[in-house]
Amino acid sequence: MELIWLIPLVPLAGFLLNGLLGKSFSKPVVNTIACGSVAVSFLLSLNAFFGLLRLAPESRSFEYILFSWIPSGSFNADVGFLLDPLSAVMILVVSGVGFLIHIYSIGYMAHDEGYSRFFTYMNLFMASMLTLVLANNFVLMYVGWEGVGLCSYLLIGFWYEKRSATDAGKKAFIVNRIGDFGFALGIMLLFWTLGSVHFSTVFNLAPEQLAYGGGIVTAATLLLFLGAVGKSAQVPLYVWLPDAMEGPTPVSALIHAATMVTAGVYMVARCNVLYMMAPTTLLVVAVVGMFTAFYAATIGLFQNDIKRVLAYSTISQLGYMFVACGVAAFGAGIFHLMTHAFFKALLFLGAGSVIHAMSGEQDIRRMGGLKSKLPITYMTMIIATLAISGIPLFSGFFSKDEILWQAFSSPFGSPLLWVVGFLTAGLTAFYMFRLIYLTFFGQRRYDEHVASHVHESPKVMTVPLMILAVLSIIGGYIGLPKALLGGAWFEHFLHPVFAKGAEIGKLAEGAGESHATEYVLMFAAVAFVVVMIFTAKRYYVDRAKDSERFEHGFGGLYKLVYNKYYIDELYDKIIVNPLVNGSNWLWQKFDVLIVDGFFNGAAWLAGQWAISMRKLQTGMVRSYAFVFLGGAIFVIGYLILSR
Amino acid sequence: MVPLEYYLVVAGIIFTIGMIGVIVARNIIIIFMAIELMLNAANLAMIAFARNLGSMGGHVMVFMIMTVAAAEAAVGLSIIIALFRNRDSANIDEVNLMKW
Fold first, then answer.
1. Which ipTM score applies to this complex?
2. What kind and span of H or E run contains A63?
């Protein structure tokens, strides 16, 4: 466990090596360095995890301070790492899924010009993300937070010759900056009131020094949540994530599905003590999460770009995680975070495999019938889709069901949250199976030219798919709820981290021992999901000819959803355009006319003055001497006369 | 004992000759000598005052001026030689490149 500081540092070393020398390395060397460093991180994470398991549950918290980073008066920030059950889960997920995606990228990026640049950025991302989840104070966490934002920007705009890619990168960066601004203010507010940025100090002092539900803790948690809203793409700052699909598909899988976007959920769970002290914020978190989950799911219904469907699905699933946090079921949120990392990474990598096979085609209306052509991709994607839809026995069922149950039963929850979550689950099943049916079933709808190239991806890409498929199935069993004869082992493991928060919120563990309601709700959700799957099958397989008529049958609603509620257009109109026009005005009127005018005018005046005065410079030495004389006589005369 | 006024008048006359020389002369060497005249006129006045007031300050000042004048003569003459080599002339009116 003493080696945890190496976990973020090894990928950083890989980043430096590939970044400085990558151009002169051959491709095998580049990917050995990149994948190897992540593999080392994963092994170290495993080692740390088992080290943690050997300790008693209460003492499972280990801090390692590498060095004091900013000692400045009463302000002190260390480069220090905190290993506890929460960060252990996170580093395992990040380095594990990250490793698989690195392996996959070897195949996916094989023919790309920016091969070493890609792996350089990926390693930098791994280093930042691992710093984010391992940090033992807010400031170091912020460093990781900004680092992953930077890598996200760099990788979205990876194909920088493409205008849309660079625009998407900028959009992601700017929208995230709004959230980060709130995050930074939240950290400052905490330091201002509690005098520390260190996690354990803050979480110990907060219950003593701040009032329960008071203004300060509410403001601080809301500001921190604003950061989470930006990073985890919640309403209203979600607009960057769908555009982020311009990046290479492994990037979408790693950064924009499995890891970075979950940073907000991790941060809220990490600060559970603070959030439990602010019931108002919890309500905001739950409502924002639920609204986002439902809203993004509706947009996902009729999108035709395979990656965009998955992007909206990611936003929706992140909403679920925030619902869990908002009803004080942080363990359920992290559980869903983990299973989601598995099946969503798998979905994206599968989509990448499909796109690869289709020579870059991303429109699912021009696919179809790929089932027999891409058998491994098909099988693994089916597993992931069953998992995300919440079909029993797959991982997503356990985690999503846990969230729905908590939304219903928690003291902070309400049946209304459950109803929206229930509807969202149905929509999720519908759009995911629509994607599967349009892609893999039915008639082939692509031309001969593409058909001649269709091929299953190489082993280096399919093996990670298979591993993730296995994880998507078994990943749920570690958190088997008590209602299903499980031990809720995952939640017990995480419990020490959330114990203090639970104490503040007066949450009794194991409340509601009767499972009757839970079974009913579970059954209702599964039944609804199955109905939605068959609806999707009916309109996209059995009566595939009518699918367009079916979609257009919704009339205005279809148009609204298809155009994503015109939110991008709205933002352009009320925020972007006024900002651009205002800046243009300031540039042309204020900057050019007033600021530049002032300085150019001053220079012009000095110039005019100099033009008239330079006649004095005659070049006649004797006339200078004469002027000297005159000056001397003047000075002496003045001295004499003024006596 | 010669009264102080005599010395001052002589010093004034020498200084004025030097001053007129600087303004009127065209030959750089003459201007240079005129400057030396002015310096030495000042020296004379200073010595006269020092003697009259019985103070050593004036004497010290004169030595200072003589040292500076010696250094100035060396630098000045080398400038004049350099100028002459370039221009083949010692006429101050021809040295007029630095003007508007």
1. 0.83
2. strand A62-72
